[in-house]
Amino acid sequence: MDNLRGRVTRDGIRIYEPSDFAGIRAASQVTADILDLVGPLVKPGVTTAELDTFITDEIVRRGVTSSTIGYKGYKHASCISVNHVVCHGIPGPKVLADGDILNIDVTVTVDGWFGDSSRMYVAGTPSRKSARLIEVTHESLLRGIAAVKPGNTFGDIGHAIQTFVEANRMSVVRDFCGHGIGRVFHAPPNVLHYGRAGSGAVLEEGMFFTIEPMVNLGRPETKVLADDWTAVTRDKSLSAQFEHAVGVTADGCEIFTLSPGGKFYPTW
Ligand code: MF3
Ligand code: CO
Ligand code: CO
User: Is there an atom of ligand 1 within 6 Å of 100 CB?
Assistant: First the structure.
């Protein structure tokens, strides 16, 4: 409807048009495809810089743009967060060892639309507790996504994630959140991964945002290292994260960043 074109809610959340779904879907599917392709490269002995170079080359090969290179001074096409790194790990000379767990987070811009997603990978064979952390984190994202439909609130999403994670005696990171996305990378609202049912803004058809819970085996507190990017758990416990971008539909949501190869969830 023309009178709704360009509408922004009183919480500052943009309502996109039905025709906008195709644009963000296309960008998101580029990201998801790259996250599929990098999977087989994750092995003991590889460096995180090598994984980032592969991702950069894939972005260039497709003629699309990295959204993170140049973003607030960031210099890489991915964030790679290993073991107790919560998020925003900088690719570098770190060599992966057997049993390391890592999140790879990629954002690309395609025709002005942002595609943002991250997944967990394992170098070699994970420990039982690492595998459980990854499983619980992934399931918490799915529970959050299950709460996405018109009339529910952002608090319902956070509540679904937090109750599941804490029932499994793990903790939800409070210091980082999901975000509105679309023709901008980070837009309102802050999508919290914890909260009270029924709190926060009401979900409406046409809202586009990410859900990207970070879950720790130990305490939820984080700190940022001297490089001003790398966020780690204060207690050095392992941390995991999955991120999808979703759009609210009439009766639920579309997950824009679903794996084209059905590989979103790690196998080992
Ligand atoms: N992709 C991240 C997110 O999920 C943001 C990374 S910004 C960077 O929002 F500069 F660290 F790459
Ligand atoms: Co994001
Ligand atoms: Co991301």
Answer: no
Torsion of the alpha carbons at 228, 245, 26 and 23, rounded to the nearest 10: -100
* Whether pTM exceeds 0.85: yes
pLDDT of residue 5: 64
Q: Which amino acid is at 84?
A: H
Q: Is there an atom of ligand 1 within 6 Å of 79 CB?
A: yes
Cβ of 177 closer than 6 Å to ligand 1, yes or no, is no
Give the DSSP letter of residue 47. B
Report the C-alpha gap between 160 and 89 in whole angstroms.
27
246 C-alpha to center of ligand 2: Å? 11
With contact defined as beta carbons under 8 Å apart, do 172 and 193 qualify?
A: yes
Q: Is the dihedral of CA 47, 79, 242, 214 positive or negative?
A: positive
Number of C-beta neighbours around residue 135 at 10 A: 15
Structure tokens at 230: 């790398």
- Residue 118 CA to residue 143 CA, distance in Å, equals 17
- Residue 230 C-alpha to ligand 1 middle, in angstroms? 11
Confidence of residue 75 (pLDDT cuts 50, 70, 90): very high
DSSP for residue 3: G
